[in-house]
Amino acid sequence: MKKIAVLLSGAGVFDGSEIHESVLAMLALDKLGAEYQCFAPNINQMHVVNHLTGEVEAGEQRNVLIESARIARGEVKATDELDIAIFDGLIIPGGFGAAKNLCNFATNGSDCEVSPEVSVFIREFVEASKPVGFICIAPIMIPRLYGEGVNGTIGSDLETAQAFNLMGGTHQEAEVQEIIVDEERKVVSTPAYMLAGSISEANIGIEKLVKKVLELV
To answer: Is residue 29 a contact partner of residue 105, using CB atoms and an 8 Å limit?
Structure first.
């Protein structure tokens, strides 16, 4: 049985992992007969957003690992607990947490950096030539992790695509139901809620991404 790591960034589209994308990815893995384990960095979120009002909650702090446990039903490990030898690949759902907690793209744009704990975690998969799937806004980290010329997509948002290219990547425009594959580097990406108007639309690309990641193992 193939075993895939799922990297979460909190719980909630505006300050953590996009919950629909996370659950759909785990569901697709389970339906395809793969085992998965959730991980998250043991760090504080950039900030906390009230998902009812959209306002930032001043003075409130939440931990990414603890919040990710909400999605993982408590079955989540810190990124520094990874044993790369027992995993075949990695999938990273989107949500603003990917751009706020896993990296700082939300504040720094094309000058962003991947957070140290997250960089060490993902690079273990990169260096072991194991496939990684990036969903929604998570692909913005691809150029920082893989270097010059790597292919990926965030969909069709011009400003974000330009940032991807400025960081050294080669952005390919994609529709919501499509995936972009860099076969050489074993990188798969799909727009999901960067473009999706419904959960069923997001699911099409996510299922394709999960299937491709498993094929690349």
So the answer is: no
